[in-house]
Amino acid sequence: MTRGPTKTAEDGREAKGFARLDAEAFPAFEPGAVWLVGAGPGAPGLMSLLCYHAMQACDVVVYDALVNPDILRWVRADVELEYAGKRGGRPSPTQRDISLRLIELARAGKRVLRLKGGDPFMFGRGGEECQHLAQAGVVFRIVPGITAGVGGLAYAGIPATHRDTNHAVMFLTGHDASGKMPANVNWAAVATASPVIVMYMAVKNLAEIAAALMAGGRPTGDPVTIISNASLPQQLVQTTTLAAAGAFVREHDPPTPAIVVVGPAADWRSLLDWYGPDLRENRIG
Length: 285
Ligand code: SAH
What we know:
Elements: H1 19-23, E1 34-38, H2 49-57, E2 60-63, H3 69-72, E3 80-83, H4 95-107, E4 112-116, H5 126-136, E5 140-143, H6 148-155, E6 169-173, H7 187-193, E7 196-200, H8 206-215, E8 223-228, E9 236-241, H9 245-252, E10 258-262, H10 269-272
Parallel strand pairs: 1-4, 1-5, 2-3, 2-4, 6-7
Antiparallel strand pairs: 7-10, 8-9, 8-10
Helix pairs in contact: 4-5, 7-8, 8-9
Bound molecules: S-adenosyl-L-homocysteine (SAH).
Residues 41-42, 66, 116-119, 122-124, 147-148, 152, 200-201, 227, 229-231, 256-259 line the site of S-adenosyl-L-homocysteine.
């Protein structure tokens, strides 16, 4: 067995619990830089140490609607909080508005924490924001987060892959920029490409998506699992089949945000469903 470098008191091992974090040499958050950070699917305990560090070291947080307010409680008290989502009937700022705002804040010398739900590069438009930052010459860092399509499944007792059920998994969005079922997806190919399909933003168009998958040869009895508010105390998991999915959504109106899982991975839930009512009182996750 190889041994790691010898630890000394100065490296923080003497400190207890989370106080150790303060002794760690986290990367410097430079004024004028933007950190694009994924906060995870909801439960604060699922954020990364770099996310936590950025929340202490930044000057301003620009956050999305999907960031759990419970997570914002962890931000240093004197940091400005700026909301970048849809608010009370007003149209949401365009992606361009948000990118321009990030650039403006960075050019004013702020340490800008751009906080997004899940992972910033997974259906989160983080790529577009980074592209604008790079073009504007703003220094940035990306901190990945636990995406809802993996972490959310774990909280529902569904392994995204399992050697007995699927050697592949596919992630897709059920929504294009105009809110419709994406037309530039080859649904016939998707139907047979992967035993498990994990869909983001798919509840509204589920009837249409299910029809397209069945038309492409997907079995009508394939399980469909809808995971609402994954990892939060109000998490709700509902199951139906591909043929019944459209009617199910009309009748039960599943709360959003929700992840839709198509395929047999959901069968593991009967054995692996671990996030029970007694665990949900803990707000950390
Ligand atoms: N970047 C995010 C996804 C943004 S798109 C990520 O990596 O998770 C928004 C979609 O994510 C929602 O419509 C929903 O499909 C999914 N989502 C995000 N948080 C969720 C949660 N806590 N429970 C269920 N679905 C969630």
